[in-house]
Amino acid sequence: MLNKLSTYFYQRPRLVLLLFLAPPLLYMLVVYLGSLFLLLINSFYYIDDFSGLIIREFTLRTYAQIFTPANREIFTRTATMAFFVTITSAIISFPLAYYIAKYASPRLKTWLLIGVTIPLWSSYLVRVYSWKLILAQEGILSYFINLFGLSGVLQWILSFESIGGSSLALSPLGMFIVFVYIWLPYMIIPVQTALERVPNSLVEAASDLGAKPLQTFRTVILPMAFPGVIAGSIFTFSLTLGDFIIPLAVGNSKFFIGQAVYSYQGTAGNIPLAAAMTMGPVVIMIIYLLIARRLGAFDAL
Amino acid sequence: MTNHLSTPAVQFNKVNRYFGEVKAVDEVDLEIRDGEFFAMLGPSGSGKTTCLRMIAGFDRPTGGSIYLYGQDVSNLPPYERSVNTVFQDYALFPHMTVGDNIAYGLMVKKVPKEERVRRVDEMLDLVQLKGFASRKPSQLSGGQRQRVALARALINHPKVLLLDEPLGALDLKLRQQMQVELKAIQQRVGITFIFVTHDQEEAITMSDRIAVFNHGKIEQIGSPSEIYEKPATTFVAGFVGTSNLIGGELAKRLTGSDQTFSIRPEKIHVNTTEKTTTMDTITLDGVVRDVVYLGLYTRYLIEADGVDIVVVEQNLKTTSMDVVSAKGQKVRLSWHKDHISRIGA
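^ inputs. structure came back:
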């Protein structure tokens, strides 16, 4: 019986393909793209200011609300944060990823990779709130800063309005630190994978042809690892754009996109505006990917 | 300006390279002359590639010194040595065009663009790849990649060119063609070529001199004919071509000394009739145990005095029918006494 079934499927490879692909395809189309499409539709509705009801008519007036100064500021603030978090993650990740990919023994490599991913095993909320304590006025970080007599420096940095606040836990700088910490593994792993695929002989060849270490890095290693950096940056950038927990827990009361969406669809009941605001990060990511493609990030894929 | 006639291109002075407990290279002394085509031959793990990597600077000796035209380079990084390498996997930069690959060495040395373009054209000409400058390495065949790797190395006018198993990845026909071509290019540019190979035929075809490596040591250095005709050790006799090693009592009876000697299969003649022999001929009676007909020649396995001896004879007058019928026949083997090579202890 089982044999017959095997033969039956063997003779009909297309049917097998269909059986395997149908569930994930359905999921992609209905659940994932479908809900995204509903979101898009909702963003073209608007809310009646007087009754608070959603009017299901095509309009662009909801999108117009995004461009009010307050909302524009939210977008700029979030995108700027995402940009710096991405750049910093990439810079921090590279040496570690390079070490893991090229120098670590297989044993050490396993341990380092476990070390990189271990934070992902515990709840993200717990980690964010732990950082709130670490960064607090009386927290462990302040303790060490005081120990080294650097509290003056910290106060000076916190006095800058754009990044500072009354303590690290209540400042954009603190939020930035937490963002980098939380998303770092998502950058390290793709960069490490990309570097793993750069044959050692290419690095040797560059050096052999007269390139000093920095030149080798700039002309061979970086361009070849660039797809990995882009892959990682898609994570760090988009995750920062959409996050609403970290801005809620750490930092000052200024809104980020995620928080705005959260409050519009929740307390305000303004689903169309929440939907329109969500389309913001989608558009930003599309633009980002187009630029990345322009820069040749996907050529080596 | 040093006198190249007396200064060796490369000199190893008691060079060691240990990887933990393993002695990859063990007290190697070596002199490679200016302008010669030098082969490092040996099985994998014999230390030949490590020696090459130490000349390039990818690896540093644990002990001893390496000189490049009289200069101690043992601890110089690769980018400060006027040596270039053709890698086994070619190591072409996949994100650059062929032209950019070849120009790489000039680019990092900030040579002006015009000169770069001109010299890349010269190189493409030398390796017969005109018009390929704008292609990507992934669009090339194995043989073409090899040429690009060669051009990329030679454009820097290195004093020494290192080739690591350069033809290993090519198919037989292309390999034979590239052997001839590499030799021709070396004669044209006139610089020292050092190449690593495990293929004894390749080493013999191409090089002026060969160093045979085994277990981190050099067994013998000499011209291809010396290596082939007068192997100094059992290992060389066995690794370079096939050899019959005869020692002990039989050696004493045949040559008057019990020192082991080697005799190449093609130097032995198989006679079915008793022939008159001269003073210079050594003869030995045996029985044909096996015959393998190989078209161009026939390989016989002959047992004589309890020793198996391999003999190869060209099929000048014989056909497959003749040779197969030889099995089991009593024969007399003979060879010229100058054709034996005494093997050191």
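The interface with chain A takes residues 56-58, 77-79, 83-85, 87-89, 91-95, 104-105, 107-109, 152-153, 156 of chain B (CB under 8 Å). Chain B has a mean pLDDT of 89.
thumbs up if we can close this ticket
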